[in-house]
Amino acid sequence: MNKVKITVLKTTFDKELAKEYGAEGLSACPMHTEGQVYMADYAKPEKFCDEAWKAIYQYVFALSHGAGDNVFYYGDWIRKPGVAICSCNDGIRPVIFKIESTDEKSEINYTPVR
Q: Beta partners for 7?
């Protein structure tokens, strides 16, 4: 298993939806900013949004286990092998991530409890 690089490409905010449905004072996601980089493998990176992790984990898992040699979905989504562009599930202020496979080997740094 290799590490995967996660880069925050864009944070967005839909003012119309926020006006109609959002809580008072809602703004763009406070968890992530454009340009942030995380390295991941089997576990959610420290300070990474739990909900965003649930949305992108399947792509992180696939790329960390070698799916980077191919393009996703028969080549009709992303043209570059080893890359996925995904977003979190927040419909008012989604964050868009680039997930890239790397050659950096992953190491499990904990002892499982039996």
A: 37, 98
Six token digits for residue 114: 């039996």
C-alpha 17/C-alpha 103 separation (Å) is: 41
- For the entire predicted model, the pTM comes to 0.87
Distance (Å, whole) CA 114 – CA 103? 31
Calpha distance 59→40 (Å, rounded): 11
3-state SS class at 2:
strand
The edge-to-edge listing of strands for the beta sheet with 95-105 is 37-40, 2-11, 95-105, 83-87
The amino acid at residue 33 is T
* Averages of pLDDT over each 10 residues, the chain, 114 residues: 95 96 95 96 90 95 80 71 92 97 83 68
First to last CA, the chain: 23
